[in-house]
Each structure stands twice: as C-alpha cells, then as structure tokens.
Design brief:
Number of domains: 2
Low-confidence stretches: 167-204
CATH class of the largest domain: Alpha Beta
Number of strands: 5
Mean pLDDT: 79
CATH superfamily of the largest domain: P-loop containing nucleotide triphosphate hydrolases
Length: 204
C-alpha cells in the first residue's frame, strides 16, 4: 500500500536528484560516474505503472517531466550495465536485510528485469553499452580493466599501418574516424526521429 501511495513522489524525487547530478558532472568539466543514469529511472516508473502501483496520470506527468529535462542534458559517453538475475537480486536483498527492501517480491524483480532488458536494447542504439554479468562479484580493479578493454574495442578510431612509397619499412598511417551525434533522450518504439548517420573521415 505504501509503495503505491508514494511511488510517484519517490520517482520524481529521484529524477530530480539524477538530473542535478548529471548537470553537476557536465558543468564541472572533469567527467564523472553515476551509479545510475537518469535514463534508467524511467524503467522503474514504467514497471510501477504496469504493476498498478502508479496511476497512469502520474506516469504521464513523470514522462513529460523527464523529456523536459532531457532537452537540457548531454548524453553519457558510456553505460555499464551490471546484469543480475532476479533470483540473485532477491538473495542479495535478503542478505542486506534492509527494512525498506523487505516487502519487494520476486515477481516485481522479474518484471523489472524484463523492462531493463528492453531498455538496454533500446538505449544501446544511441549510447554505447557494456553489459557485464554481475551474478558474481568482481574486484574494482578487475572491473576497471574489463571496462577499459571493452571501451577500446568500441572506439570509433581505427589505426592501419602499411609501407608507403617512401621506401620499404617506412610506415604511413591511415586513420579512419567515425562519430555520430545521437539525441540526448533515449529512443522509444513509437519515436519516428531518425538517428544521425555516422560520418567518416580518412586522413593519410
């Protein structure tokens, strides 16, 4: 009952906090890492709506507020998705023994997992995503190493060397750089907005 009563207020509170964090990172000019992006909060709101724990009117108000905020946001360079099964999530909730999580049912986690999977597939069309199996914890150092390796693979700059006409063994570097400017807000199934085509430049 409490979850349904306060779901809208809580989601708006979290949305406002994520937006503030997002803008602080952008205006700080140093870059940063968020534990959860502002885009992901909409997944929770949708799951609450679908479960009957948020009124449709409140959900539409939330979505409108999110899109208004999205007009002033820069998209993240990368999203790292820690993929955990609903069953493992439930085990971790039990181990944490937090009173605020004690009433969360497995059914809710299963629905949230499906909604998250759809979100990741959708957002990956405009923002690079690294999906990590997180059913087993890894050290911070190992995570940093894996993310760095995967990020390099996803880079849009590729280097190719070969001998040029200046003589054998004298390398000439060809750099193929691609990039795009996708929208700040996540795509939706009903959206007809085209995604910017990558541009390619070749420099010798």
């Amino acid at each position: 009952a409490d979850q349904a009563k306060y779901s809208f207020q809580l989601q708006v509170f979290l949305l406002n906090r994520r937006f503030k964090q997002h803008q602080q990172i952008v205006w700080g000019g140093q870059g940063g890492v968020q534990d959860r992006t502002i885009y992901e909060d909409s997944v929770f709101a949708k799951t609450l709506r679908d479960a009957g724990l948020m009124e449709e009117r409140d959900y539409q108000t939330y979505i409108e507020l999110f899109h208004n905020m999205a007009n002033f946001m820069r998209k993240p360079n990368l999203i790292v998705h820690l993929d955990v099964t609903p069953e493992e999530s439930m085990e971790r909730i039990k181990k944490r023994s937090r009173s605020c999580e004690s009433s969360i049912p497995l059914d809710y986690l299963q629905k949230l997992y499906v909604a998250y999977d759809e979100f990741i597939n959708d957002i990956s069309k405009v923002i690079p995503v690294i999906k990590v199996n997180w059913n087993t914890f890894q050290s911070t150092e190992e995570m940093a190493r894996v993310i760095e390796e995967e990020w390099k693979k996803m880079s849009n700059i590729h280097h190719v060397d070969w001998p040029n006409s200046g003589g054998p063994g004298s390398p000439s570097q060809v750099v193929i750089a691609t990039g795009s400017s996708p929208p700040s807000s996540p795509p939706s199934a009903s959206s007809s907005e085209p995604v910017a085509e990558p541009k390619a430049e070749v420099a010798v």
